[in-house]
Amino acid sequence: MKKVLLVLIVALISQLSFAQAPKFGYVYDDYVMINLKEIKDLQNEITTKREELTKQLEAKGQVYQEKYALYQQSLKNIANVTTESLNAALKEVQDLKKEADEFQANADVELQTLIRNKYNDIRAKVDDATKKVAAEKGYKFVFRRNADANNRESTPILLYANDNGRDNLSDAIIIKMGSTPPKPQTPAPAASTPAAKKPAPKKS
What we know:
Blueprint: H1 2-20, E1 23-27, H2 29-34, H3 37-76, H4 83-137, E2 139-144, H5 170-176
Parallel strand pairs: 1-2
């Protein structure tokens, strides 16, 4: 009787220990980011903004080149140009050059600010989605596991996981963010070996 009771107690403790064991999940952080629609939209927005700023800068540069050419022409005909008009032309050229330089500097800052703010906003949404997915699936701990360990940290957070992807929350987070994860690639079927032809029977 004592032996049976002991076995039951051990079994009960084992079940309780198993039931209380925390679940550990992981996320391919870089995989999630590159497959988000918001990241792709941001890339398109950056491209459009960069092209817009480039066109504006080129337009300012064109005006500067034209005014500078007129100023150079005035220097060649300096005998027919007053000092006041020459100084005014020089100041206009200098102001245009300064304006173009300032525009380029401000454009660089504007673009960097856009990228930083939008990326940080997406990053915060991913973190929030990770927490929600983990809570829904009952995970107490979620680790970062990047395909490229040097992407965001010097060493990977998770070195190995032998779970056949069961605890990989990456696709679930992408879906939670309103995007569609890429379809898993299926290996190409192996080429079949043609059957060897049987020799024709000899004629008797």
